[in-house]
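[Protein data]
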Amino acid sequence: MNADARRNAIHVVAAVITDVRGRVLLARRTAGRDLAGAWEFPGGKVDPGETAYQALERELHEELGIRIDAITPLIAVPQAYPTKRLILDVYRVDAYRGKPQGREKQALAWSPLDKLATYPMPPADRPVVALLTQPDRYLITPDVGMDRKKFLQDVERALAAGIRRIQLRTSPRDDFPALAAEVQARCRTHDAQLLINADIGLARKLRCGVHLLASQLAELHDRPLPPGQFVAASCHDDVELRNAEALGVDFVVLGPVAATPSHPERAPLGWKQFAALRETVSLPIYALGGMTTSDLRDAHRHGAQGIAAIRGLWPA
């Protein structure tokens, strides 16, 4: 979290605590508090003079009666509310002592990962759920080119390397629908998600996801696919982000964060502006533009789900 964010926003820490079954601990906000009744990751405000670790240690002991021994930073989510701005600084608790109990009479729940999204949560907590349950890398395929066989081999290589979310860019090739079906079959084998760029009809036919262009966001009035088929969108400013959220998309890409050869005409946002746009919505957001896996840590520090890339993720 940068110095400007510390000065201008409330700094809040939160913990992702899991049990031996992999379930995640949630706490329910008590009556009399903002967003009472909503579920959240346990934690609280950082007091003046405290480090994030000290605040998390204090809050978890006060709220749950546990002592933490080791934590790992996960994500820092900037979020604007009607009357305040905050940074939700989230850590995974790797080791702790004691048994969590609701010491402040708050209800607790141990949720399986696949049920986390069903809990009503404050906006800042939603990107944390996405980080825990969805891929942190979003591969955008390059042009198919002339060598269809090589393209499919590279898709297979990317999947074998751990990519679990792919956007297939459309092509004027006559055999593109058949090619998309082959990519979809490979994704299913690896339990990965496929999204077709812009072509809603083909996405419906293949029962996969669709990645909307920014221009499509302005034209659509309803979510174009049913739940279960992911809808994503490309965004470049706060208007497009709000349009995407109003449409009910599952996630967006935002950029370019850094300069990129594919769009030299676009001035890069930089991480500071990315974070400022991030706080206007509660959607999961991938950072796009000049990204590689080495940028994942910076992406998470500025509230991103992860990175989206062509060159940075496509097999060399």
The chain is about 30% helix and 25% strand. The chain has two domains: 3-126, 137-309. Residues 3-126 form a domain with the Nucleoside Triphosphate Pyrophosphohydrolase fold (CATH 3.90.79.10). The chain has a mean pLDDT of 94.
